[in-house]
Each structure stands twice: as C-alpha cells, then as structure tokens.
Write a structure and sequence with these properties.
By secondary structure, the protein is mainly alpha-helical. It has one domain. Helix 1 packs across helix 3, helix 2 packs parallel to helix 6 and helix 3 packs antiparallel against helix 4. The longest helix has 29 residues. The termini are far apart. 17% of the residues are buried.
Length: 138
C-alpha cells in the first residue's frame, strides 16, 4: 500500500496540482503580509480551488493504481464540489457524519490538511497583527 501511495504522490498531474496550490499559498501569504485583504480573499479562493484540484488529481491517481474505485472517487469529488445550489448530491435522509469521520477524511487528504493549517496560521497571524496594532495606538 505504501508503494501505491508513493505512486500517487509521484503522479505528474498530482505534482502539478500541488505546485499550483503551493504557489497560491505563497501568494496568499504575500497578500496577508502586505495587508491587501481583497487580494488576499481572491488568493484564498484560488488556494481553495487549487486544493480541490489537487485532491481530485490524487483520487484519479488512486483509481489508476487500484486504491480507490471510480464510484468512490466520484462520490468524494461530489462532496468536494457541491452543485451551484450549495447542496451536496447526498439525500436529505442521510444522517450527518460524526465529527471523527470528518477528521479521518481530512487526514486522508494531505492537501486539505495543508489548507486547514494555512487558514489557522493566517487567522493566528492576523489576530496577533491586530493586537499589536491596537497596543501601538494605546
């Protein structure tokens, strides 16, 4: 299984998608550092899209090496990319997933884990910056 996951990481499409996500992350950090919030929001949106593309590429590579069925890859893609109405394709009778299952989903997707870590770091940085500015004014 480790060799197959390594094959997924070495897949050219996965590597390209991860490079795009890294570039979007770097640009987002530059925008946050410069204090341009509108551009930072655009870059955060671009990073989210790049992360979804990377996860989709990883799933396609997993299907190719036999770690995932096409049906499961399609289901996961649908969950990542909800239809325009904002609702997923899941029936409303399905009970919500417990929190721990959601955390397992995050652990299975390195790109999603990186995105969540980036958002947490950006929030902490903005909070610290705001507090320092308020202290300087007082």
């Amino acid at each position: 299984m480790g060799d197959q996951e390594e094959a997924v990481r070495r897949d050219p499409e996965v590597q390209q998608a991860l490079k795009i996500a890294q570039l979007a992350r770097a640009r987002l950090l530059e925008c946050l550092d410069a204090g341009t919030l509108a551009e930072a929001q655009q870059m955060l949106d671009a990073l989210r899209k790049a992360t979804v593309l990377a996860a989709d590429a990883e799933d396609r590579a997993r299907v190719h090496v036999g770690l995932l069925t096409q049906a499961e890859a399609d289901r996961r893609a649908t969950e990542r990319n909800p239809p325009p109405g904002g609702h997923t394709a899941r029936p409303s009778t399905t009970p919500p997933r417990p929190l721990l299952q959601g955390l397992a989903f995050v652990a299975d997707h390195p790109a999603l884990t990186a995105l969540l870590a980036l958002i947490a770091a950006a929030a902490a940085w903005l909070t610290a910056r705001t507090l320092l500015r308020r202290r300087k004014r007082n």
